[in-house]
Amino acid sequence: MIVQSLTRSVPLRGRQDECQAIDEFAATVRSGLSATLVLVGEAGIGKTRLLQHAAGAAADLHVACVVGVEPESRLAYAALHRLLRPYLDRIDTLPEPQRAALAGAFGLAAGETADRFLVGLATLTVLAGIAECLPLVCLVDDAHWLDRETAAVLAFVARRLHADSIGLLIAVRDDPALTRTLDGLPTIALGGLPDRAARDVLTLAAPGQVAPQVATRLVAETRGNPLALIELTTELTEDQLAGGASLPARLPLSERMEAHFLRRVRLLPPATLSLLLIASVAPPDDAAVTWRAAALLGLPADAPDPALTEGILTAATTLAFRHPLIRSAVYSGAQPAERRRVHAALAEAIDRDADPDRRAWHLAEATAGLDEQVAAELERASQRARARGGYAMLAAFLSRAAELTPDPEQRTRRLFGATQAHLVAGDPVAAELRLGQVRSGLRTPELRATAHRLRAAIAWFGGNVTTVNSATMLEVATDPDVPGDLRRGMLFEAVTVAMLAQRHTIGTTLADVARAALRAPGDRRDPAPTVQLLLDAFATRVAVGYTEAVPHLRAAVAALCVEPELSHGSVPFTMIGQFAAEDLWDDEGHLRHLRHAETLARQRGALHALYSVLYGLGAAATWAGDFARAEAHYAEAADVGTMIGVPPDDLARQVELLAWRGHEAQTRAAADVALTVWDAQRGYAVLGSHARNALTVLELGLGRYQEALSFALPGLADSTVAHGNRMLPNLVEAAVRAGDHPTARTALARLTDRATASGTPWALGVLARSRALLAADTDADALYREAAGHLAATRMATELARTRLLHGEWLRRRRRRTEARVHLQAAHDAFTGMGAATFAERARVELLATGRRARSRAGAPDLDLTPQEARVAALAAEGATNAEIATRLFITASTVEYHLNKIFRKLDITSRRQLARTLRPAPD
């Protein structure tokens, strides 16, 4: 496929640097690596000419092209389908989840909703397969008119390319919405041509001489835009160009360029105008539909000839416009009645069975006024869009269906559907606009409840939980006339929001929300759905008590470990499930739930869920003392966050790992963000509690007990679910060491009640250790040993090492130095091995006080691997194949092989069998 020339035969001028960058881009792909480049600039600036240059530079490679067209921007995956259509025979060779996703996205098969990131992985696999035969360059022009789903998939692919012999070159106008999607990719911003090059373009394009003073004005007013310069040579007379006649006061530039094209178009015969209007909205890759519509309107076969003569069109068969602005000018300049006539002809010309969605859209555009029949057809098309994962398309179809709907209640339901679709598509502004269009039709409790639920979802999506009105949600959710599933979902969301917000909850309190949830009729199915189990667990925990909640919490955690869904409404199970497991001190359940959710998220390409899971796995690895694995999880979470458009993390979620590592400045900076931004400004009190817990750990490691007590003490008054329980043993230690025994005893009493009710080894271990801190000398030694015994049966290596440290300190103070050395050395070895610098130093100082220096211990070797290499190495060491690693990390098998080769060189090994031994820390 060859990129159309948009500037006729005028040679490329003034783009030496850009051409060199593109030549290097092609050379990189030719060498076996991958490359991405985004060209950003205004209309006519020369983006397409540079794509032409790229096609020439990659003439010996496989080149695939796709051009975004405005009429298709609402049709999900339309552009991606055009890009991959020559290679659709490869779909059957994809791994099953990818095959199903791509086939579903293209409407080739029915099944589960296609996740766009799994579609992205499938696209990456297809392109990598093509590149195995010959390096591949994909050229994407007018990307600002790509459908939203295709743009997201191409951005996904661009960020996963590494060693695949694939190049992706994207040309786009400076559109904030799309440039956000492409944020972080290598970009060249195209400005106007330099003065000399701009004058050369004028000279080459003009039919005669161009006077110097005329050239100066034209270059200045066009700001060196080559298309504007070329079009001016056709707009102005030879006499004006030569300086013999004055130039018009206003030149047809920038925003007036479209009007300039429209003036030229309107000089064409009516039949040609009608054909151009058809071509402006017809499928760009289906000339047969265009000509069928033309025949329905009685247009002759020679209708395109005048447009070809005038250079408006470049090809008679495909009716390709010379510039996309001409396409826009043709459509926007047509009379409404004429546009409706053309849409009606296209709707009739399109095969109902082959392309029902495009036909429905044209039918809607051909309709004036209200028409329930057309609205219903649009709604049916929207359901097909949902099945393909095209939520932007779903929102557009339902919005237009609502506009055509006579019945107020039915119109409201369709607007609600459009609102929800906009949220899923990541566009809360459009969602709020659609919801604001609901002015009547809220005649039933169900519709009123849905409206409140959507308002809450929009507020939550905005990242500020304080804007979610829990009181209003609660009032609506407790209406007995609201259907049970909707009521339960709203109660669950209200409880979740209140748990996250704590003291920031608007209009009510967490306790009131929990009591209302308990009073509401529950779901008494056997077994109860996970959402009901979670609702019962948290409501009981808050409104009744911890002991009474324990059976409910256990049931909820068990259900989460087999739950087939990743969320309920706007609440991700991966987040709320971690709260339940932490509140139980259930490290095994916590990890089982996360690993189950990780498997689901990776299989389905559900990157938003995976993003949350990876942070949870990072926390679990931190508690287990495997700080390197925790960092790898956090690095992958940041990588996934980039893919889904989440801004780079500010380390607030990693604050606990930073605290354990003893990185004081970073811990305080991350905690400050959590406390001032996430807690105080955005209302996430739970993140404030998390930060205070991390600061407590930091101060305990540094031996600053009074400071540790000041951070831990608020947890006694505001016992946040999960974090409140984990804070208790820290509070006991800080208070005992700071000499505040009344506070220590108060915290121990709460810990005793809850840990006893929980009964997990983690809970019983930290309870025994906390009792030992306050126990008489005759009892403390046995309690420390009991604590170590319980904790040795858990994954909580950090807690076990702390127990050994406290036990050793206690023994040393009783002058039992020989026994103390055993525990202190074990603590020092453990802390050194995991990289807990401040706690290791605390153990070293204590050992020195016993008269012995700490034995040096070899920790994990410094392997000098990048985060991606570390992840690949770890999976390979576990026995995963290249294909399995590629699927888990959303990369290609060739990139895995590339990383493994680098890993082998860095580690000076030659086989995967040696990886496990090399990655394992040296033994004592």
From TrEMBL:
<dbReference type="GO" id="GO:0004016">
    <property type="term" value="F:adenylate cyclase activity"/>
</dbReference>
<dbReference type="Pfam" id="PF00196">
    <property type="entry name" value="GerE"/>
</dbReference>
<dbReference type="GO" id="GO:0003677">
    <property type="term" value="F:DNA binding"/>
</dbReference>
<keyword id="KW-0067">ATP-binding</keyword>
<dbReference type="InterPro" id="IPR027417">
    <property type="entry name" value="P-loop_NTPase"/>
</dbReference>
<feature type="domain" description="HTH luxR-type">
    <location>
        <begin position="858"/>
        <end position="923"/>
    </location>
</feature>
<keyword id="KW-0547">Nucleotide-binding</keyword>
<dbReference type="InterPro" id="IPR000792">
    <property type="entry name" value="Tscrpt_reg_LuxR_C"/>
</dbReference>
<dbReference type="Pfam" id="PF13191">
    <property type="entry name" value="AAA_16"/>
</dbReference>
<dbReference type="GO" id="GO:0006355">
    <property type="term" value="P:regulation of DNA-templated transcription"/>
</dbReference>
<dbReference type="InterPro" id="IPR016032">
    <property type="entry name" value="Sig_transdc_resp-reg_C-effctor"/>
</dbReference>
<dbReference type="GO" id="GO:0005524">
    <property type="term" value="F:ATP binding"/>
</dbReference>
<dbReference type="GO" id="GO:0005737">
    <property type="term" value="C:cytoplasm"/>
</dbReference>
<dbReference type="InterPro" id="IPR041664">
    <property type="entry name" value="AAA_16"/>
</dbReference>
<protein>
    <submittedName>
        <fullName>AAA family ATPase</fullName>
    </submittedName>
</protein>
<dbReference type="InterPro" id="IPR036388">
    <property type="entry name" value="WH-like_DNA-bd_sf"/>
</dbReference>
